[in-house]
Write a structure and sequence with these properties.
- The protein folds into 2 domains: 181 residues, Diaminopimelate Epimerase, Chain A, domain 1; 150 residues, Diaminopimelate Epimerase, Chain A, domain 1 (Roll), CATH 3.10.310.10.
- The longest helix has 17 residues.
- Helices cover 16% and strands 32% of the residues.
- It has a 17-stranded mixed sheet that branches.
- It has 367 residues and is an alpha+beta fold.
Length: 367
């Protein structure tokens, strides 16, 4: 571990970059700056984020699942990748980090960060960073704008949920189907009945259970705040999640943040379908990148719970699926697939560093 013993304030300094990736924020660390022992590493990271206090008042965490994330970056030993990206979801109010899922929003920051930190040399114009998502083993190619051999963060690309435009970061995914569950449809079926409710269990980069909103007593157009306050709907959704976990090969998911739960309903604007996602017990203000990829894949297929929605599958070839969510829409580009094969997934995100320097933690937590 390559950090200094203590500052003049008797606190340990750990190099850190706080980044927005898509609609989430995370603390980015280089693997060489952290303890090699996983327990020691997590103790340090939890102290840095201010956990287990739910407000995270004594750390840099944002107090919500979307702003309490960690990315650990290293050079990859995989011939197909340049960078290894280990994602950690700090569990709000609990003294632990969940490494089961990955995060596609934070993934948007991995390419730029890796170039800025010297892991990957920048080319003039655009630089492709090949990323292995350590949590799931999936691969991603991130196309980063690097005019003059430097990362550009400014541009005109807008994404829902972020008020300012930025430079586009194109993410193309490979080998993500069944990355957590072992199969695109981990139960072997496109439609299951769990707790008396029709559901689709799917994993095209993120394990997701899709439910028609009306089947659990919701409209699908409620605000996240309203759904978080609806104890009856949340209880039904959580009961389905706990029963779905073993069926999806995830085991007992009581203490896990997967599978994600998504309520689907007909679109209200110009999208293909409308969503409300739980991550897994709090309603998302938008929708996660890879969660949206799984939802779009289910919509694009026949025989899923999406079959009753107002619009049908987008067709063959390259097709853009517009997934509506509480703060806008998310377009997922699918290509290929069919005949039981999962389609490939591509999308555009933006990202930028918010601060860089050192996070300060009590010396005992860095021992």
């Amino acid at each position: 571990m390559n950090h200094s013993a203590a500052t003049a304030f008797d606190l340990t300094r750990i190099a850190c970059v706080w980044m927005r990736g898509g609609t989430s924020k995370a603390a980015f660390f280089r693997v060489q700056d952290l303890p090699t022992d996983p327990k020691s590493r997590d103790r340090l990271l939890l102290a840095a984020m201010g956990t287990p206090d739910a407000r995270q008042i004594d750390g840099i965490g944002g107090g919500t699942p979307l702003t309490t994330k960690i990315a650990i970056i290293s050079t990859s030993g995989d011939d197909q990748a340049d960078i290894d990206y280990l994602f950690g979801q700090v569990v709000i109010g609990e003294d632990r980090i969940d490494y089961a899922p990955t995060c596609g929003n934070i993934l948007a920051g991995v390419g730029p960060y890796s170039i800025d930190q010297g892991f990957v040399p920048a080319e003039d114009g655009k630089t492709i960073v090949r990323i292995r998502m350590v949590n799931t083993g999936g691969l991603c190619e991130a196309v980063v704008q690097t005019p003059g051999g430097r990362v550009s963060y400014t541009g005109e690309t807008r994404i829902s949920g972020v008020p300012t435009p930025g430079a586009p970061i194109e993410l193309g995914f490979r080998d993500i189907a069944g990355s957590s569950c072992g199969a695109l449809y981990p139960t072997g079926r496109r439609l299951d009945v769990i707790e008396g409710v029709a559901v689709t269990c799917i994993d095209n980069g993120m394990p997701v259970v899709l439910i028609r909103a009306e089947d659990v007593g919701a409209t699908g157009y409620e605000t996240p705040t309203d759904l978080d306050a609806n104890a009856e709907v949340k209880a039904r959704v959580e009961a389905i999640r706990l029963a779905a976990g073993p069926l999806m090969g995830l085991g007992n998911v009581a203490g896990k943040v997967v599978p994600k739960m998504t309520l689907v309903s007909p679109p209200r604007d110009s999208g293909h379908l409308n969503t409300r996602s739980f991550i897994p017990r709090k309603c998302h203000d938008a929708i996660g990148v890879l969660g949206a990829a799984s939802v779009a894949t289910a919509f694009d297929d026949e025989g899923t719970v999406c079959a009753s929605l107002a619009t049908g599958p987008a067709g063959s070839g390259v097709r853009d699926i517009s997934v509506e969510h509480p703060t806008g829409e998310f377009t997922i580009r699918l290509s290929g697939g069919g005949e039981g094969e999962a389609p490939s997934v591509a999308l555009l995100r933006t990202a930028r560093p918010l601060f860089e320097g050192h996070v300060l933690v009590p010396p005992a937590t860095a021992a």
